[in-house]
Amino acid sequence: MVALKSKKNNRYMRKIFEGGMTGLLLACALVSVLVLLMVFMFLLGNSLPFLQNNDIWQFLTGTHWLPFGDFPSYGILPLFVGTLMVTLVASLIAIPVGLGATIYLSEIASPQVRNVLKPVIEILAGIPSVIYGLFAALVLSDWIMVIFEPNTRLNALNGALILAVMMIPIMVSVAEEALNSVPRNLREASLALGATRWETLKMTIVPAALPGIVAAIILSMGRAVGETMAVIMATGNSTQFTFNILASMRPLTAALAIDVPEATVGSMAYYSLFAVGLVLFIITFALNLVAEYVLARFKEAYH
Amino acid sequence: MYIAIGVIAIVVIAAVGAALMMGKGSNDKSVKVLLLKKTSSSVAYSPMDQEAVYNGSYSLSRYLYLYTDGVPSTSSSIYKWLSLIYNTTGQQMVTDAGFYPLQTSDLNAMKAQLQNGNNSAVTGAFTESGSTTMTEIAALWAQSFKQSTGITVTIKTPGSGAGIKDFYNKIVDVAQASRAMTTAEKATAAANGITVVEWKVAVDGLAIIVNKDNPVTTLTLSQLEGIFNGTYTNWNQVGGNDKAISLYGRDSASGSYASFKDLVLVNKENYTSAMLQFNTNALIVPEVESAVGAIGYVGIGFAKEASGTSADTTLSEVSSPVARVL
Fold first, then answer.
1. A48-97, pLDDT tens digit by residue?
2. Is the interface score ipTM higher than 0.95?
3. Number of inter-chain CB pairs under 8 A, A vs B
4. What part of B 64-83 touches A (C-beta under 8 Å)?
5. What percent of chain B has pLDDT over 90?
6. Does B184 touch chain A (CB under 8 A)?
7. CA-to-CA distance for B287 and B295, rounded, in angstroms?
8. How far is CA A44 from CA A47, A104, A147, A280, in A?
9. Which fold has domain A65-302?
């Protein structure tokens, strides 16, 4: 009787314990959601004074970014184009190189080569962005000067090139995982049907891993959009509105980093910088949503 | 094992690359300091000409400042700090850092201002924040100060605007600035209960530097204004070669950004958006060295260093104090 009671008690205790643990883990998971919400509210709350007192259309399409001075002008189009141009060109370089490296590493390279190359690429991902920035400002800019002869050594192309270098390790590590997780039987079935190694790669493995590859591309683009230190050092930070990749530009992140120290707390310039932050947040958020959408669609197609 | 091979490979490649770059670094680069004149018919002056900077003949002269909360009493660390700055050693260091010492009249006025202070709040170590142009000069003072009094001054240099902000938010005890505090900043400080006291500590001439291969040696103030507001975009519009002008300036947190704007863009216009912006003087110099169409502005100390390290021709060209245009 006593034993039975203690057993019942035990079960009861275990239930409480399990419930408690579940709740604790749920709380851990919710922390990230909560932080996201708080960041969004913080940005929105501080940009509201700006958005209420200024024409939002003017803010998005204005071509002069001059938050300080007697006649301030808050047009973020030059900054937006700066981010766009730098990210786009960086992606154009990084995507083929990154995917080529991934396919070589996971499908073609011998284990020995792979064991040397993989850690090297991983080290590349761990280098602080300020080091990349330094390299771009002092070395890469000289090479660009010799090859393209731009007016200024520091320009958007310089930033794009260094961002491409920074994007590649992220792309390789995520995309390689996707290629590796393609089921072995798909590969073997393809080879058994008489397909060559190249045909198997092209028609079976890459399509099957496509969602992972797309996610890899978008994640690395998110890295490029959000990168600050390297682009500040590489692009020269002029606020001109131009699509010329050999001209100096100031991406959104650089504008935040440069102008925040000067903005008096509570001034319109201060709130305008939060609005810029909000735009940046929305861009990265949208990028992630697109990645999720693509992943979901391709997953449906393959299962 | 394999990781070791990878690491060794990287080190070898890096070493070869570094060796190649060392060779490249020996290239003799330098910049040229332009002479400025007020109108096309007046005399041109160099910022290297101390007298011209003092009496305003050179148009881009300015004071460097410290700001404190009230006048410090003799027991305060800040009193000792200012005493060091205003004695012979302190003013000699101003020269060592490449700036000009205060004129006797200013120096006496500042010494008089330092008498009968009553704020004894700061004893022991204290903090200072502000101008990047003043980095070297402040470091020289701080080193000597530490030796003579044993007191540590912690100095950060986020730019004059940011330093003044730190000062009126009571994050630091002293602000260092390459421009005067604005009325708005003074009002905010007063609202925060700070009695702003201004200390002139040195004189600077903002130097206009161009690439040494640029044939232009002199500009008028209005030409300079036209270049920095974007009216002129090619050197042939101001008497130079057919070469696009590329502009190098400081970013918004910098005192030089603000003081150059006040002194040159006299019609309250903004800098042209084509101007590249940097957070230190030191970053501007190598850009101007390497781009033929470049023009930039830096504190006189940086211009002396950048133009003086090079061949004699450049040096003699810039040190000729006055150029008379007939």
1. 999 999 899 999 999 999 888 778 899 999 999 999 999 999 999 999 99
2. no
3. 100
4. none
5. 59
6. yes
7. 9
8. 5, 45, 44, 12
9. MetI-like fold (1.10.3720)
